Automatic annotation (TrEMBL):
CDD domains: 17beta-HSD-like_SDR_c. SUPFAM superfamilies: NAD(P)-binding Rossmann-fold domains. InterPro entries: NAD(P)-bd_dom_sf, Sc_DH/Rdtase_CS, SDR_fam, SDR_oxidoreductase. This is SDR family oxidoreductase. Keywords: Oxidoreductase. Pfam families: adh_short. Belongs to the short-chain dehydrogenases/reductases (SDR) family. GO terms for molecular function: oxidoreductase activity. The keyword Iron does not apply. PANTHER family: SHORT CHAIN DEHYDROGENASE (PTHR43976), SHORT-CHAIN DEHYDROGENASE_REDUCTASE FAMILY PROTEIN (PTHR43976:SF16).
Length: 267
């Protein structure tokens, strides 16, 4: 039986992926900050819930040891994270540090903790969830994009570094997903000088727009494909909106896309 370890499995994409892999006969180690609050995954056979806050380095070390002492892991899915969406000028330093510590350093630390396990097995795979905003910039997402661009570069470098040991690294870059991300996993801040910009950007998070986003189950299917397609493919763009945005960037070029967005949000 193959085994996947998932961070941030309490809801959204992490939970949907846990359920999908379980349905396909995998053992799932679902980690989250408060496993005692979970009441669905606990009912599934071969789904093990463990506490893990990826901003807690001590807990990463302890939980990783607990997992690798008991199980042979095939895939680590770095999914946990949240969105910090606000003009940079509105953000306090502790908000910036928290975003970097969770979305970037959390991924780096969890990955580092499992490398030796995979290296000794001479196999294994890291799948890191990034975003279309890890491939292109967007207003009010500067720090969020900074973390996702960084995870993408980190992953690409590591994919080359670890190939000699039979370890694969892949990234999934989704567009919008129909989850409660905006209310559950998004942090914001206000600044009067950016009121028009924030209002314009917020239209992209309206109920009407969210209805056009990908279903979380569809993105979970992309994760499953990445884990099982037997290819050396590195990056998977997930979702119709994501594919359209990246196709535009590829055809027009990054510079042209930046200029178009600057014009679109000029007030």
């Amino acid at each position: 039986m193959k085994t996947i370890m998932i961070t941030g499995a309490s809801s959204g994409l992490g939970k949907a992926t846990a359920q999908l892999f379980h349905s396909k006969g995998w053992r799932v180690i679902a980690t989250m900050r408060h496993p005692e609050k979970e009441n669905q995954l606990t009912k599934l056979k071969n789904v093990i819930l463990l506490p893990l806050d990826i901003s807690n380095t001590k807990q990463i070390t302890e939980t990783t040891k607990q997992i690798t002492d008991q199980y042979s892991i095939d895939v680590v899915l770095n999914n946990a994270g949240y969105g910090l969406v606000a003009p940079l000028e509105a953000l306090a330093d502790d908000q910036i540090v928290k975003q970097l510590n969770t979305n970037l350093l959390g991924v780096i630390r969890v990955t580092q903790a499992f490398i030796a396990h995979f290296r000794m097995k001479k196999s294994g795979m890291f799948i890191n969830i990034t975003s279309t905003f890890g491939l292109m910039g967007f207003p009010t997402c500067s720090i969020y994009s900074a973390t996702k661009f960084a995870v993408d570069g980190f992953s690409e470098s590591l994919a080359i570094e670890l190939a000699q040991f039979g370890i694969q690294v892949k990234v999934i870059a989704p567009g919008g997903i129909q989850t409660d991300f905006a209310s559950r996993s998004m942090e914001s801040a206000q600044h009067d000088a950016y009121e028009k910009l924030v209002t314009a950007v917020s239209k992209g998070y309206s109920a009407e727009q969210v209805a056009n986003y990908s279903k979380v189950e569809d993105i979970a299917q992309v994760v499953f494909k990445a884990a099982n397609d037997g290819t050396g493919r590195f990056r998977y763009i997930a979702g119709r909106d994501a594919l359209e945005l990246i196709a535009q960037r590829t055809s027009k070029g990054a510079e042209a896309q930046v200029q178009e967005l600057k014009s679109a949000f000029a007030f």
